[in-house]
Every structure is written in structure tokens, then in C-alpha cells.
Amino acid sequence: MPEPELPFSWDTEFSLVTDRFVLYDGAKLFAWTYGIVAVLFTAIFLLQGEPRAVLPLLGMFALAVAGLALLAIAIMAVIFRNRFQARITISAHGVVVESRSRVGRILNRVAAIGGALGRSPTTAGAGLLAMSSESVGIEWTDVRRVRQHADQLVLSLMNSWRVVLRIYCTPENYDQVRDLVTRQAGAGTAARAGRAAAGGAS
User: Fold this and answer.
1) Is the pTM of this model over 0.90?
2) Cα–Cα dist 71/123, whole Å
3) Which DSSP state fits 3?
4) pLDDT per residue of the chain (202 residues) written in tens, 0 to 9
5) Reduced to 3 states, what is the DSSP secondary structure of residue 34?
6) Distance, CA of 29 to CA of 121 (rounded, Å)
7) Rounded to the nearest 5°, which phi and psi values hold at 198?
8) Which long-range contacts (CB under 8 A, 24 or more apart) does 65-68 make?
9) CA 11: distance to chain centroid?
């Protein structure tokens, strides 16, 4: 099958609550959130000489994070109906994933406008942050590794330490996209090495 011309775009959709990558990424997000908050407040209370307050506080944080996780699952299952639509575009510069979820776009704008009208910076900020995440991407020079998940038709693009983007392919284009991504990531590695060599020479 011939390699598609760039830019190459397609629309796809994937499940939320039942997708192992969504659950895994969500679990990491909540775990990092809890860990950072736990370390920060543990240090504060120990410096204040109140070690007995640490465990009850950590328990409260754990309940709060668990509640947020359950709320997120409920939103994905009920409001989004366990489906998320996206458009993926591969270009010579990198990969961009755009949200095509009408429900998500409406909720983000409602949160931003409602927060502004209600004078709630937290709500408005959350809505604006979500709007900014409706389109995310990565340049080829930042891709250090490509993980292939053929059974799930997914490609994971990583930087030096974490997964930055997941590409959800279709049964029809997985092989094409895999070969295209592998080639472009290799070109990005070569460009990065060339820049490093030029910098070292100068």
C-alpha cells in the first residue's frame, strides 16, 4: 500500500471508560496529583511540628482524589456516553490530535463563561484550560520513541521520559500510519542529532 501524502488526516473515535490507555493515563494523573499534594503538605506539617496531623490529612486527600476519579468516570460514561471523537493529522512537522467531541466543546465553553459570569476564577480557568487542550500535538524532533500496540490499533509517541500523545488508528490505516510515523520519527531523530552536532562543532 503506497504511503499517504502529507499532511494526512483521518477521523477516529475511541472508548473512554473501557479503554485501557485512557484508564492508565487517568490513573497516572490522579496518582501524580495525590503524590505531589501529599509530599507538599507532609513537609509543611512536619516543619510546623505537627506530625500527628499528617495521616488524617493524607486520608482526606485520598478520599478527595478518589471522589474526583469516580466523578471523571461518571462524566465519561454518562455525558460522553463512553465515546470520544478526534481528528488526527500527521504532517512533516509532527502530529496533532484535535477534539471533535461536540459535547466536550460545549462543556468547556459553558465552564469558562459560567465561571466568568459567576466570578469564579477556578471554574473559568478550568474551562479555558480544557479549551486549550482541545488540540494537542508533538513535533517529530521531540519524539524519542514510538511504542506500537497493534492489538489496540494505537501508537504511543514518547519524549525522553513519558508518553506525550497516543494515535488511535483505524483497522484500514494502522499499517500505513505505523510506517509513516516510524519514518517521520526517524527523520526527527536525525534532525535532532544534526543540530546537536552543529552545536558541538560551534
Assistant:
1) no
2) 16
3) P
4) 566 778 899 999 888 889 999 999 989 988 998 999 899 989 988 888 888 888 888 899 999 989 988 988 888 888 888 888 889 999 999 999 888 766 555 554 444 454 444 544 444 344 334 444 567 889 999 999 999 999 999 999 999 889 999 999 999 999 999 999 999 999 988 888 888 777 655 5
5) helix
6) 22
7) -65, -40
8) 65/30, 65/33, 65/34, 68/30
9) 18
The per-residue DSSP string of 78-112 comes to: IISTTEEEEEEEE-SSEEEEEE--HHHHHHHHHHH
CB 157 within 8 A of CB 136: no
Residues present in the chain in total: 202
Residue 134, SS3 per DSSP = coil
Cβ-Cβ contacts under 8 Å for 191 (sequence gap 6 or more):
140, 141
